[in-house]
Design a protein that fits this description.
There is one protein chain. The chain has about 120 residues and is an alpha+beta fold. It folds into two domains: about 80 residues, Elongation Factor Tu (Ef-tu), domain 3, CATH 2.40.30; about 30 residues. Helix content is about 20%, strand content about 40%. It has one helix and eight strands; from the N terminus they run ββββββββα. Strands 3-4-7-6-5-8 form a six-stranded antiparallel beta barrel. Strands 1-2 form a two-stranded antiparallel sheet. A hairpin with a 5-residue loop joins β5 and β6. The radius of gyration is 21 Å and the shape is elongated.
């Protein structure tokens, strides 16, 4: 199972497929608020050690469900399969760790400047 950047991580979010049409699959995202239309998800077969079944792209978000369109498949997607989604990386400047470091560094620098006077 490969993505553009390598293997799908083991901690990828796993979702149960509720229904399957000819070319779409519907699933509930539950707490995964980071899922958006345009993201790629992967259908895997848990009976065959998570063998890759298909690649899908999320095309629509209904009230409590997401609809994903099959873009490439090895075998037919069924409700026995699961979807894996990789959470996108957050840019470094949007992380809490960066801002805590910037704020504490600013405070230490300001305190050092005051003491040096």
């Amino acid at each position: 199972m490969f993505t553009k950047k390598g293997r799908i991580p083991r901690d990828a979010a796993r979702f149960e497929i509720e229904s399957v049409d000819d070319s779409t699959a519907r699933f509930r995202p539950f707490e995964a608020t980071w899922l958006r239309p345009g993201m790629q998800v992967y259908a895997v077969d848990p009976m065959h050690r998570d063998a890759l079944v298909a690649r899908l792209r999320i095309v629509r978000a209904d009230s409590a469900r997401l609809v994903a369109l099959v873009t490439a498949q090895v075998t037919k997607v069924t409700t026995d399969h699961f979807l894996l989604a990789v959470k996108p990386k957050v840019p470094w400047y949007r992380t809490r760790r960066f801002w805590w470091g910037a704020a504490s560094g600013g405070l230490v620098g300001a305190a050092g400047a005051i003491v040096a006077r």
